[in-house]
Amino acid sequence: MIQKCTRFHTPVSRLSLAVLFSSVLAPAAAWAIPSPELVIGSVSSLSQVLAVGVAMVSGLGAVVAAKLGLQPKGKAEAKRYPIKLITGLLLAALALAMLNYWQFTTQRAAEQARLQATLMRPAQFDGTKIKDATLKETSFSRQSDHPLAMSTADAAAALDDGQTL
Asked: Is the pLDDT of residue 153 over 70?
């Protein structure tokens, strides 16, 4: 008597065999890295599908509740808005906005102080000693407003003439 081969008759083994054959026969382009636009578009589409699904489930829930007689009570018992909850949420949002503004201004002030500290450091070059400790680098606006200030064109003309002193 010939025995039947029951080796590939389970659903799991059939599925794994199908996956194996399809992966071997798949084109090489299927293994390529997708572009960012494709990934973002796919996620956006999936989120829209999820939103439609949630709307369908909530609509189905409303229909089932209406069929079971679980409708809201009449207009005589109108509910009050949760004033305390709304006020609390608005205060929390305002506090977070103020915290965000404080962080922004603190960071901006620290950055400004760092930049000003680099402008007011003693003038020193690599390998040289400071001869005059009172010599400081000043900002460009102060340099250009100084009575002894020279424009770039004037400095170039003085260098060309040889009158550097």
From this structure: yes
